[in-house]
Structures are given as C-alpha cells and as structure tokens.
Design a protein that fits this description.
230 residues, alpha/beta, 6 helices, 10 strands, 22% strand, globular
Length: 230
C-alpha cells in the first residue's frame, strides 16, 4: 500500500520522563528510531509527526519526517487519547477514507521496518479493520496470583497444575504501532482493541517506556540486540 501514511503523535509535555520524545536514546533522539524504521520500510508515502512543540518539530524535520501542522493544545494535554489525535491528523492531512494510516509511537524503538511492512500489508486481508503490534507474555498469565488477606490466591486455579506448554499463549499490546484505514480511525464506535490483526514482535524485544528505569532497561536491550546484529 504505497499510499499509506505513518503518523507519530509526539507531544511536548511528557511528565514522567521530561522531553522523552527527543531525549537521547542510544546516541540518537528517541523519535529518530521510529522515523528511521518508517522511512526504511518503504511502506509509507508520508511519515508525519503530529506535535505541539517547536523543538520536536525541528528535530523531526531534520530526521526526514514531515510536520505540516501544529497540533492544537487541547489534543496535547494529559487526557488526549491516541485515537482522537490520529483522527485529527488524518483530517488535517485530507486523507481519503480508504487510505491507510498507521499510528507509530515516537518511543517505538523496537518496531522494525519489517514489522511496519507487515502491519500495513495485513490491512489488505478481508475483514481486517485494525492491526496492532503485540508480544507474548514471558510467563503464563494463567498462573498469575492476586493477594487476598496477605496470602497469594491463584487467579485461574484450574491452570496451576498444568504444564506451561499446555497453556495457551497470551499476548499484550506492545505499544509500538496501530494501523487502520482512515474511516476506521474516525469511527468512534470502533476501538483499537476490536479484534485487531496481530503483528507479533519477538520476546525480549519490547519494553514499555514509562519511567526512567524503563528507559535504562530499553537502552540495554537495544545495545544487546545491536551487539547480536539484531
């Protein structure tokens, strides 16, 4: 789908990790990683950054992305949701309803060009409205516990005696990207978790970067993968 558009929602007001979208990550601004992956994938006609921040805009342009508009402040606070931000972007870009738009997070340091190509291509399959990057839980969630009265209680008692290989794999949203057609982004009745097609990322290649500790771990993972040639 050569007409697909990658949209990176990169606001300036990150609280837990200040300026995280352009903070140095393994020697480059964080946003450089997903922009490079999008450009290298060949899956997108445009790579666009939606931001309210002049410094982020300048960095993004220097990395080869477009910043054709300034995001409204009401969509750049702590309560703005991803779907509304992307719906705003596709409207500002004048994209047709059947065009493909992928939300690629500015901290998506683990989304590679192949992953993005697979995400865009999956929308050509009949009945696919959403595509989501996911990863498998490292341990069976069926064997998870809750604390009740100071004691551990299994959440799924019937699974406790089963072998790990007999339990169904369970996946989580990897927080790297979502793809859909523009009409779907605009559809308030179609949430991103509505039976999406998965793009499964390898175990150990995903870190949800919310805290400084997450950031440090993510850098270690990237350096390890680079040392391995991954």
């Amino acid at each position: 789908m050569a007409g697909a558009t990658a949209i990176l929602p990169a606001r300036g007001g990150s609280k837990r990790i200040p300026r995280k979208n352009i903070k140095a990550f393994c020697g480059r601004p964080m946003i450089a990683w997903p922009i490079a992956a999008a450009l290298q994938s060949g899956a997108f006609a445009r790579v666009v950054v939606s931001t309210d921040d002049a410094e982020i805009a300048a960095v993004a342009r220097g990395l080869g992305a477009e910043v054709p508009f300034v995001r409204d402040a009401r969509l750049a606070d702590d309560f703005a949701d991803t779907k509304s931000v992307i719906a705003d972007a596709v409207a500002r870009l004048g994209l047709a309803d059947d065009a493909v738009a992928c939300c690629l997070y500015p901290t998506a340091a683990f989304a590679g060009p192949d992953d993005l190509r697979n995400g865009v291509a999956a929308l050509a399959e009949p009945g696919v409205r959403w595509v989501m990057s996911v990863a498998e839980y490292a341990t069976p969630v069926q064997r998870s516990y809750r604390i009740d009265g100071g004691r551990l209680v299994p959440n799924t008692p019937d699974a406790m005696a089963k072998r790990s290989q007999d339990l169904e794999p369970v996946y989580f949203d990897a927080g790297q990207f979502y793809c859909a057609r523009v009409a779907t982004w605009r559809d308030a009745a179609s949430p991103m978790w509505d039976r999406p097609k998965p793009v499964v990322l390898a175990k150990g290649r995903v870190v949800d970067i919310d805290t400084p500790e997450d950031w440090a771990l993510a850098e270690l993972v990237v350096r390890f993968l680079k040392d391995r040639g991954g």
